[in-house]
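User: Quick sanity check before I run a bigger batch. Here is a single chain. Can you write out its predicted 3D structure?
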Amino acid sequence: MKILVTGSAGFIGQNMVNALRDEHDVITYDVRENGEHPSVEGLDWIVHLGAISSTTETNVEKVFHFNYDYSVFLLQEAIKHNVNFQWASSASVYGNENTTFREKDNLNPQSPYAWSKFCFERYIKTLSYDIMVQGFRYFNVYGPFEEHKGDQASPYHKFKKEYEKTGKIKLFDGSQNYRRDFVPVEKLIEIQKQFFNVKESGVWNIGTGQAKSFLDVAQTFTDNIEYIKMPDNIKKHYQKYTCADMTETNATLDFYK
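Assistant: Done. Predicted structure follows.
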């Protein structure tokens, strides 16, 4: 198959490109490295990963330009040229009070990033199309190529680097109670690859279905933990718990095996 991967210089994008190249003809595009967008005519799939991925970005216009406006343009191109479309949503659309994380739950985005993903999901519902349009609500992804993400890197990456540098790890107060669904990027990619064979459109969770505390993650590296106060700019939209309900995802993949 011929597949365009946007955001190909990013963390998930680099891993996606490497995983697809052995079996498919992959075209890469990243707004930070490329100019004019390549033609989508003749493609089999677009895997749209490009986005402002910072959940703490406060420039709403910037976030919506890259995460919403560009996604709308790309999906319109896909529909026009009959190209199937996968794209990255986020578990952040569930908000910070959800405890079930089912695809049909009411959504409650709290940050500009989460709103941009929510609005694009809503936009898709207004359209008619004959292609497959598949969105995936990513939970907390970790793995290779996180170096450039800085503060937005996964706890696995940040804690490892911090321990190697200082011999200890700093955690927010209460981190033993903050639990997230941490999903390896390899698992995420394997699921999306299987969805190439799914003849349905929709939105599905991608996680592990299990939650670990930040303390659990830190203790994979050391027991030398220092607790610090959570900054106010993070506190108001901080998700204390995430755990993907994988029922719909697994049922869909099982049906198309």
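The CA atoms of residues 41 and 81 lie 6 Å apart.

User: Great, the batch can go ahead then.
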